[in-house]
Amino acid sequence: MDAGKPEYVAGELEAYAHWFAVPEPSANGRFLALTFFAECGEAARIARDTVSVFLSDIVTGEVVYDARLAVSELVGNVVNHVVPDRSRSRDGRSRRIDVTFKLYPKWFFVGVKDEDSTPPLLPMGDALSPELVGEFTDALLPDSGRGLMITQRIASAVWWTPEEGGGKTVWCRFDLVGDKRRQ
Ligand SMILES: Nc1ncnc2c1ncn2[C@@H]1O[C@H](COP(=O)(O)OP(=O)(O)O)[C@@H](O)[C@H]1O
Ligand SMILES: [Mg+2]
């Protein structure tokens, strides 16, 4: 990992500045915000298919499959884990999901916002030491906690931000240029 190098830091800062902004078509950017409910029965499929449509004509190949998988995991987590904050919950009320896509020539950002202020449990480092990886791997892996680990592996970065007034957004970024893992 080149994390200590000045070029790496400069690259991360440049990506951060673009994540913060809204991409403009005049700068070859593309933006989409999609709102739906976790209870709609097809939340993950809608999000996956929207990734393909949103990226079509511009981004092709492996990164599209990885982005589909990542958004599916993040939306699946809202469906499976989100308990809306007390201020937002009412009996029988559907849980709202806001998905944001921001595309720049160099990055694709995905944000999945929910109504629960509880942070996601993002894995820190490797879950298994290398000497344990082998024929027993399946038995040693926990049944839950794989989705965000997979997302961390396929995306260039995964993080979350609290929302004003409650809830949070889980973000991930795909680097479209200079990603050594895809060359
Ligand atoms: N959007 C979310 N809101 C609240 N908690 C979350 C959210 N996403 C993930 N989590 C928490 O992080 C944990 C790890 O998520 P993940 O790696 O996807 O595993 P899994 O979904 O299989 O439990 C979850 O078990 C849950 O406790
Ligand atoms: Mg999950």
UniProtKB/TrEMBL annotation:
Full protein name: ATP-binding protein
Gene3D superfamilies: Histidine kinase-like ATPase, C-terminal domain
Keyword Cell wall biogenesis/degradation: no
Ranges where the Histidine kinase/HSP90-like ATPase domain occurs: 44-173
Domain of life according to the entry: Bacteria
Keywords on record: ATP-binding, Kinase, Nucleotide-binding, Serine/threonine-protein kinase, Transferase
Gene Ontology terms for molecular function: ATP binding
CDD domains reported for this sequence: HATPase_RsbW-like (cd16936)
One Pfam family in the UniProt entry: HATPase_c_2
